[in-house]
Amino acid sequence: MAEAILEVRDLHKHYPLTQGILFRKQVGAVKAVDGVDFDLVAGETLGIVGESGCGKSTVAKMLVNLEKPTSGTIRYKGEDLTKLSPRALKAVRRNIQMVFQDPYTSLNPRMTVGDIIGEPYEIHPEVAPKGDRRRKVQDLLDVVGLNPEYINRYPHQFSGGQRQRIGIARGLALQPEVIVADEPVSALDVSVQAQVVNLLDRLQSEFSLSYVFIAHDLSIVRHISDRVGVMYLGRIVEIGTDVQIYDHPTHPYTQALLSAVPVPDPEARAHRERIILTGDVPSPANVPSGCRFRTRCWKARERCELEVPLLAVPAVYRLADTPARHDSACHFAEEKQVVPPEESLAHPDPLADGPAPVEAAREAAEGPPEEPGPDAAPPDEPGPDAAPPEEPGGPKTL
Ligand SMILES: Nc1ncnc2c1ncn2[C@@H]1O[C@H](COP(=O)(O)OP(=O)(O)OP(=O)(O)O)[C@@H](O)[C@H]1O
Ligand code: SF4
Ligand SMILES: [Mg+2]
């Protein structure tokens, strides 16, 4: 396996639960992330999936130092980020940037697009000296398929897809090697999702980026990821290549997740087994003993209550030459094909038409030409026609 650019080991983030007004006493902890391990190989995309509240965003925030881990290590090219001095960390952090979920709230409405994208240069002036910044920002707008002349516009003058492009341009400003994208397309219209995923795909090859890509949509994750990690209640319960996870899942939770993905072919749909999980996800403040999935697992036995299953290749597959031979945290891991491979997702390749060229993406993203002019509407008073229409063109296969 190629060299890991990020190595995450035994990562924990516990938020204390306190009681009392004058004397605050810790009475427990929300175990948002509770022992996560994974490697990110240079140039690959690692997808992370899992139900709401399983800790995906908390992992993302720790990777980019927006949250401090309670314990565990995050190594970037061998250097443990959790042990670096603030000064050394600032230099290294430049290389790991984040793209956020909501393009509507993640951009400051009072700043121009130029200021938003160029803001990281205030912290890292060595990347772009003052006189060079405008040109750099315009280059970045061009790279993400937006008109460089829109540099003085405000976020409200863009559609959702265009705003996410601005967020991506900002993420690229410091020429990072790793991008952590937390649900980067979830807030977007379905037709726009494909364009943004295409853009991320193209940028990855253009700038040799490595991605940690978090999403709910298993089809999108399969399209973009080389490997996929499935999270449940603060831990990764299964991890492997896209083929291993989607076509040869061995963990009951992964199997249940996949069984809920829509299958377009009516015949295949009629024959596939739908696994309905019972019960709610337990609170991360009160994690079940043994296997944390046991309260919802149809295969649970006594051992599951007593013994925490480790994330490792199950003994039964250790010597076998099969795609089922990958890490799975289950005492009774067993391959189960939930959907036929050729039909394994509603959108087996959502971007089958291939990535749109920059020009096409830009044309689709810009809408009608609209000169901002020196008196572009101030952020608080969006004119009735301030926002260009949502991208009309582009692949609509998602
Ligand atoms: N600052 C905080 N204080 C206390 N609990 C928190 C805090 N941030 C997150 N949590 C809790 O940690 C758990 C994991 O949250 P997180 O946002 O990482 O989940 P997620 O997998 O990203 O969910 P979603 O898919 O809804 O975005 C949740 O139970 C959440 O309520
Ligand atoms: S260890 Fe037991 S409870 Fe956990 S997933 Fe496997 S069978 Fe289910
Ligand atoms: Mg989240």
TrEMBL record:
Compositional bias ranges of the Pro residues kind: 375-392
UniProt superkingdom: Bacteria
Gene3D superfamilies: P-loop containing nucleotide triphosphate hydrolases
A GO molecular-function annotation: ATP binding
CDD domains per UniProt: ABC_NikE_OppD_transporters (cd03257)
Pfam families listed in its UniProt record: ABC_tran, oligo_HPY
Keywords: ATP-binding, Nucleotide-binding, Transport
Region named Disordered: 337-398
InterPro entries xrefs: AAA+_ATPase, ABC_transp_ATP-bind, ABC_transporter-like_ATP-bd, ABC_transporter-like_CS, Oligopep_ABC_C, P-loop_NTPase
Domain ABC transporter as annotated: residue spans: 6-258
PANTHER family from the UniProt entry: D,D-DIPEPTIDE TRANSPORT ATP-BINDING PROTEIN DDPF-RELATED, TRANSPORT ATP-BINDING PROTEIN
Family according to the record: Belongs to the ABC transporter superfamily.
Name of the protein this chain belongs to: ABC transporter ATP-binding protein
Organism: Streptomyces hydrogenans
